[in-house]
Target: WD40 repeat domain-containing protein
Amino acid sequence: MRIRLFSGLLSLLIVAGCGSQAVQPTITPPPTLTTAAQVEVIATASLAPSEPTAEPATPTLDDPNALVDTSMLTGRIYFIDPLGFAINSITPTGGDLQTVYKEQGSVPLSRLGVDPSLQYLSVFKGDFLHIYTTDFQELLSLPSSFEPIWSPRGDGKFALLKLTDMGEAFIDVYDLNSATPASMVVSTVGYRAAWLSDGLGLVVHNGNQIGTANLDDGAFSPMLELTEDENGTWAVDDLLSYADQIYFHGGQVNLLGASGNGMQWWALVDGAPQAVTDIGGNGILRLQFNPDREQIAYIDNFHISACLGAQVLSVQTPDFSAPARNPNLTPILADNGQAIHGAAWNPTGDWLTFAKGDYRCDQTGPIYATPQVLVWNPATQAIQAFEYGSYPVWVP
Model:
């Protein structure tokens, strides 16, 4: 079987690495950014809503627990309740907690997401993907464990990876505004996909090639051959189209290290891959543009040990011309892990909401703390923690 899905490859790498280096794993540390202009604010466990004041509190290093002023932020933040059977809602100040959806079945909710137009919500119930409007009118239900890849045009189209019983991988495209939204618009062979910047086609990882697929017939046009050499085959886990440039996140398996860390961003330059970032972790999650498509946010995975991993939220320009910015959180140590349970931009694209949960390991395996919802401004490093829950999204 020729399919080389990244998740399966990564699992093999981690198992191999843990068997040989469980005591002293070699890892690449998560990226950090510390500048004199940034202000560090330590997140607190819970806040009561506060009234706007004429002179909002300004966090300083002398007063690290000062409240961050979020009074001018609009919209609401939806997130999955810690028990997993409800979706709650709060204001960006952390007040007015409400339950906006209750699951009536026996399968808990997971991986809440929102499309770039902030019109549609996605959520998983077991092995089914459900699509709702933001007032929870169900539009579509599909058997899938893969997250929708939304069109940047805000037109209700999304791409979805599909694996057949025979192990074949396809990228299907659906249109919520069609007469039959459950019927795919087009399908093309592929293992990873992203939308072209204009939303009129897809960039697809297809075996050892990266190319484009149109929305008329799914025809694939190769742009780059990922050549296998002494450094092994290529693992690709995400793609990105910005302006007229195509990027992918990946690396060759023999260079990833025993722990699997060692992937980075590459650009397609004259038919060849050119590295545009330093070597990092072992995969990314939830890559998304802000509404103006001036910044991207994604979750970087780093393998620490047989039991532990560290996930780091990163924000940077989509041409990778500047270092990544990361929220100032508790330092990640060798004996504790950090999980980021979803991240999403606010409607104006200058703040993010995300959920963070730490965990540790003992003889029985990982022990997880309940994740907590936070809001963060990447430009100022202002950060504030609110209610407990996971996978927050920001809606108007």
User: Anything to note?
Assistant: Residues 1-65 have pLDDT under 50 and may be disordered. The helical segments are 6-21.
